[in-house]
Design brief:
Elements lengths: L3 E4 L1 H8 L3 H16 L9 E2 L8 E4 L5 E8 L2 E8 L6
Parallel strand pairs: 1-5
Antiparallel strand pairs: 2-3, 3-4, 4-5
């Protein structure tokens, strides 16, 4: 099953500010996420506190992507950044 991925404007703006190398790493992780959202490399998890109801997965040690499931077959990417995106 492949997840259909939607990109929110905030995500796109932040993505465009990343280095070219990091953008490529992000694209690879999004491809992995769309084919296997619970892959161990992604460290996908539910968020708590004011971000309750949202989820996150890792791009690398520093960068994360915050997302929400629209349905079992669709996810919207909301934000990308370092741990400050959780604030």
């Amino acid at each position: 099953m492949m997840l259909e991925i939607f990109y929110k404007p905030n995500f796109v703006r932040s993505y465009k500010k990343l280095s070219i190398d990091l953008q490529e790493e992000v694209r690879q992780k999004i491809r992995l996420f769309s084919s296997k959202p619970d892959h161990v490399f992604l460290k996908t998890h539910k968020l708590k506190g004011k971000l309750k109801g949202l989820y996150s997965f890792s791009v690398n040690y520093q960068y994360r992507i915050v997302f929400t499931y629209k349905s079992k077959k669709e996810a919207s990417l909301l934000a990308i950044g370092d741990h400050d995106i959780y604030k």
